[in-house]
Design goal:
The structure is a single chain. The protein contains 13 helices and eight strands. The protein is of the alpha/beta class. The chain is 45% helix and 13% strand. The termini are far apart. The longest helix has 15 residues. Helix 6 packs parallel to helix 7 and helix 11 runs antiparallel to helix 13.
Length: 290
Amino acid sequence: MKTDLKGTGVAMVTPFNKDKSIDYKGLENLIEYLIDGDVEFLVSMGTTGESAVLSTEEKLNVVDFSRKIINGRLPFVVGIGGNNTTAVVAQIKATDFTGVDAILSVSPAYNKPTQEGIYQHFKAISEACPIDIILYNVPGRTSSNMSASITLRLAKDFANIVAVKEASGDMEQIMHILRDKPNGFNVLSGDDALTLPMVLMGAEGVISVQAMAKPKEFSEMVRQGLKGDLEKARALHYPQLEIIDNLFVEGNPSGIKACLKIKGVCDDYVRLPLVGISSERFLKLENLLK
């Protein structure tokens, strides 16, 4: 494992200007704000980064700008995935991975492949990718769960598959992975509300949305959980639950972008088909953040 991705990783938003162009000043503000918030690594071009509505050129520009601002101060992960295996492999082969520590690759959506199809998809990605790979299982978005047995098979068969972001919400499945995973393979929470329970069961960290709202508190909660200090971790966990509850009910990243606007980091514009949150929800988040 080239970079041991543990603790709090943040799935960064892509800030937009009012005309929906990319707000690079806002992106710089976000990166500096998160580094100052003591998080452990940064993730670009995931779901929260609205990668689905960015052009290929915009994605390249955002990644290039981000790695220049990060400048090696934290590990940097880039989302590269999709439901066309051939296209994903071609994108990987065409990518300059200078300054990038790993890719986050989501299990194929829409096609609903079999478990063997999921395995063969990631096998092809592994064979093409020159850097480490974090698997991403999020059946709520893909309509296809990657089973514990396939996650473990991939972890054992390919040296550059080094972690999984588990967002199935299935704690029994997650426990099977934690129990049987090989040494050096990390399990990362993909669900903010379940992060502390997962860490206490043996997970190594999280790729979080909520950490953008409260980076110092959230990352410290994870660190205390990893140290086994339940009292301190729990004291940081429960006050954040109501924020988490309100972040996602009107869409992601609409909720977290509202939090970032409230905190003066960047504006809260999103691209269609997403829309901004209601004024009532905005006021609720504003009160919670205070």
